[in-house]
């Protein structure tokens, strides 16, 4: 448990520092005043000053932020800030393209980190395995207790597993899985005539194996793979919004996981070796990139959208309007995170 906690916190710290450093570095390069570089969310544990910027270590290690005065409009500035900050140092006074670069820099860093973490994984290779990524409701898999994240131990390809379920249609089939570092046998009866798009058991599968390759080949292959994963997650977010408003199948919500689920995945990856830990960290980094650039209030993508709107209407969106929009967006994100976390705890229990 202690090792899992250390690995979990270390992964989050590295990814958060990389993301926020992207914002910090580009903001400094464009001559913006960076008031604070924070790792974690308040309350503050300790801090120090570094070249005019306060570096803070906070108590809640689930994120971080870089405070750039003028990011939400100039009305938010305090009297003290107005005295020490030159107008040309404000985020709001910079050209739109510079602001967009600063806002996107954190996402870019997460993509780069995800890519670099994958390079040694592609060099080392991971034994081929088939992983369940989602389970349909009211399916044989759901009734038997199969879950997203279960690894099918006796199959190295999805096609081999599909053939086996077809051969056992209407009959008892014993499946050996790995879950949270331990193995168990599950008995299930594949359907002879499953609903369209579900398959005999009602599971969606993914092949997770990676063949070992030399450095230069791994460099290119991991970059291509990272971009594919990032793009797929970004598209999936639009489908998720559709599911939340009833425009897409609700089963998509069951494939989401929060900090509790990520902690559980970290425990499983730690038991499987360093390559799996790096792979998990890369997937988290790419997820953070896709989520943050999504055009939703309170996220980097939502702030980019505000800058674009300002450019189109040729006047800034008021601080009050931005505060309301970002506040509502943040509240919705917190509610979704709590819902997913509670569901993860119930599922694990």
Description of the structure:
With 349 residues, this protein is of the alpha+beta class. It folds into 2 domains: 2-123 and 281-348, no CATH class; 127-209, PDZ domain (Pdz3 Domain), CATH 2.30.42. Helix content is 53%, strand content 16%. It contains 10 helices and 7 strands. The strands form 2 sheets. The chain has a 5-stranded antiparallel beta sheet with strand order 6-5-4-3-7. A two-stranded antiparallel ribbon has the order 1-2. α3 (96-124) packs across α6. The mean pLDDT is 84.
What topology does this entry show?
Layout (H helix, E strand, L loop, with lengths): L1 H28 L6 E15 L2 E15 L11 H6 L11 H29 L5 E6 L4 H5 L6 E2 L5 H10 L5 E7 L2 E7 L14 E5 L7 H30 L14 H14 L1 H20 L6 H14 L5 H30 L1
Antiparallel strand pairs: 1-2, 3-4, 3-7, 4-5, 5-6
Helix pairs in contact: 1-3, 1-7, 1-8, 3-6, 3-8, 3-9, 6-8, 7-8
Key phrases:
5-stranded antiparallel sheet, single chain, alpha+beta, two-stranded antiparallel ribbon, 7 strands
Model regions low in confidence, pLDDT < 50 over at least 5 residues: none
Biggest sheet: strands side by side, in what order? Answer: 6-5-4-3-7
- Structural Rg: 23 Å
What is the number of beta strands?
A: 7
Number of helices: 10
The proportion of strand residues reads: 15-25%
| Overall mean confidence score, pLDDT | 84
Tell me, briefly, the overall form. Answer: elongated
Number of domains: 2
| Head-to-tail CA distance between termini | 16 Å
Order of helices and strands: HEEHHEHEHEEEHHHHH
Q: Helix amount, in percent?
A: 40-55%
């Amino acid at each position: 448990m202690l090792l899992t906690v250390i690995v979990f916190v270390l992964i989050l710290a590295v990814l958060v520092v990389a993301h926020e450093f992207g914002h910090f570095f580009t903001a400094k390069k464009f001559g913006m005043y960076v008031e604070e570089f924070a790792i974690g969310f308040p309350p503050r544990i300790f801090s120090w000053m570094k070249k005019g910027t306060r570096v803070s270590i906070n108590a809640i290690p689930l994120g971080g932020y870089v405070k750039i005065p003028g990011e939400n409009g100039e009305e938010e500035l305090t009297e003290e800030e107005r005295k020490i900050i030159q107008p040309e140092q404000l985020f709001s006074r910079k050209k739109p393209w510079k602001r967009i670069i600063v806002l996107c820099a954190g996402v870019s860093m997460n993509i780069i980190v995800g890519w670099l973490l994958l390079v040694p994984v592609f060099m080392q290779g991971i034994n081929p395995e088939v992983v369940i990524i989602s389970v349909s409701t009211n399916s044989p898999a759901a009734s038997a207790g199969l879950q997203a994240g279960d690894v099918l131990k006796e199959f190295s390809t999805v096609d081999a597993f599909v053939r086996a379920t077809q051969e056992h249609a209407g009959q008892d089939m014993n499946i050996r899985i790995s879950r949270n570092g331990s193995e168990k046998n599950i008995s299930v009866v594949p359907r002879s005539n499953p609903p369209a798009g579900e398959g005999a058991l009602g599971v969606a599968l993914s092949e997770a194996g990676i063949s070992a390759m030399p450095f230069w080949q791994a460099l290119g292959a991991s970059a291509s793979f990272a971009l594919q994963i990032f793009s797929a997650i970004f598209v999936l977010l639009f489908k998720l919004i559709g599911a939340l408003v009833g425009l897409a199948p609700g089963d998509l919500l069951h494939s989401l996981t929060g900090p509790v689920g990520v902690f559980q995945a970290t425990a499983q990856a730690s038991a499987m070796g360093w390559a799996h830990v790096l792979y998990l960290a890369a997937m988290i980094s790419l997820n953070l990139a896709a989520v943050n650039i999504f055009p939703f209030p309170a996220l980097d993508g939502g702030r980019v959208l505000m800058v674009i709107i300002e450019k189109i209407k040729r006047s800034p969106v008021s601080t009050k309007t931005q505060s309301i929009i970002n506040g509502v967006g943040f509240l919705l994100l917190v509610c979704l995170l709590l819902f997913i976390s509670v569901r993860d705890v119930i599922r694990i229990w």
